[in-house]
Every structure is written in structure tokens, then in C-alpha cells.
Amino acid sequence: MRFDVVTLFPEMFSALLESGVSRRAYQDGLYGFQTWNPRAYTQDKHKTVDDRPYGGGPGMVMMYPPLKKTVDAIAEANDEKPHVVYLSPQGVPLTQQKLAALSRKPALTLVCGRYEGIDERFIETCVDEEISVGDFVVSGGELPAMMLMDGLIRLIPGALGHEQSAEQDSFSDGLLDCPHYTRPVEVDGLAVPDVLQEGHHAKIDAWRHEQKLARTKQKRPDLYTAYLARQQKTES
């Protein structure tokens, strides 16, 4: 998979490339990555990428021409039209199912907005989909883009130490994950459940599924209701 990221702050992505699973996967060549700064595609000496919004109001808006030229440069460099994702509070929610769908694409171009947003004409003509990481606003799209990338990198075969790790994550089957324990077997009067110590894999699987159902029902009743609806639909 390849990521092309349109950003005014490319240095922020060092956090992703220099840490943890995403670092190892990058070093192993499991995904490609390049940042593209719209300031490189401006015409004036100040490298202006934003301007005041028509109609007035606070803040500045990222301009159409530098963004459009940046995306065109990405298309030319890769010899194909990119699938462009704009990280935006107005986008569809980022879910594990959305990550699974995006993971089937060979390349993504992620546009990180700043200021009050970007010129609507760029969204209308160049953006294939808008994605939101939550109902809140942050200073720019870089952190949401890194969240999306990290979620996708985990799905790349070979990125995780255990091939089933991603399959058993929360939300992979529509439920929250089950509780996990490690050594020591008892600490501060709290013990690991007996079923996990017995080595009976069928019982362990059943226990974990029951825990996932109970935890989802308690913490995310919306997901629990949706899960039951899917199960009923499948059985019918």
C-alpha cells in the first residue's frame, strides 16, 4: 500500500514513521509513504496557500490552486489518478469496516486541511470521500490522517507479530474486545479467571465471546443492538 499525504506540516509524520508497528512495517517495505507540501506548488514569493473567505468570517481558507496542483503532481508521479481522502469533521465516521474497505485500495492520497478548512471547489472536483475520526475539531488533518494510516497499516499482512492480532481487535466483528490478562496470575488480590488458566481452547473461545457480548452491551449498547440485528438477519 502507498500513502501520499498532502500537508503543510510534513514533520509531524515522523511520529508515525519512527515508532512501533508503523515504523517496523515501513522499514520492512510493507507500505510506501511520501508527503507533499502545497507550498511547493504556489506562484508567489510568500508561498501563500490560504486566503480570507468570501462573505467574511473568522479564520482563513486553504486555496484551490495549490491543492489542485499538488494532487495533479501526485497523479503524474504515480501515473494514475489518486483516490483522494479529505480528513474532515463533516466526513463519514472512521470505523473498522471503513478501514477494511480502504485496505483493499493500492494507494491513498490523504489531504490534511488547516485553518477554517479548504476551498469547497477542491472538495467538489478532487475529493473522492471525506472521513471523520470523531465529532470534534482539531487544528488540522495531520493527526486524523495518522490515525487512519495506523489503522490501515495494522491490516497489512506481515505488519503485526501475530497474523490473528488484527482479526481479534475491537470492532473487527462489530463487538468490543474481551478482557486480557498476563502474569502474575494473582496481584493485589485479583486473579486471572480460571478458564484462561485451564488451556481448554474451546472453553476459552466461548468465554471470550461471552465477555465481548457483555462488554459491548454495557459500554456500547448501540454496537450491541446493531450486532444483534445483523445476527438475526443472517439467521433468517
From TrEMBL:
Q: Where in the cell is it found?
A: Cytoplasm
The reaction(s) this protein catalyses: guanosine(37) in tRNA + S-adenosyl-L-methionine = N(1)-methylguanosine(37) in tRNA + S-adenosyl-L-homocysteine + H(+)
Range of residues in the leader sequence? none
Q: Which residues bind S-adenosyl-L-methionine?
A: G113, V133, G134, D135, F136, V137, V138
Q: Which CDD domains match?
A: TrmD-like
Known partners and oligomeric status: Homodimer.
Q: What is this protein called?
A: tRNA (guanine-N(1)-)-methyltransferase
What does the organism's lineage look like at the top?
A: Bacteria, Pseudomonadati, Pseudomonadota, Gammaproteobacteria, Thiotrichales
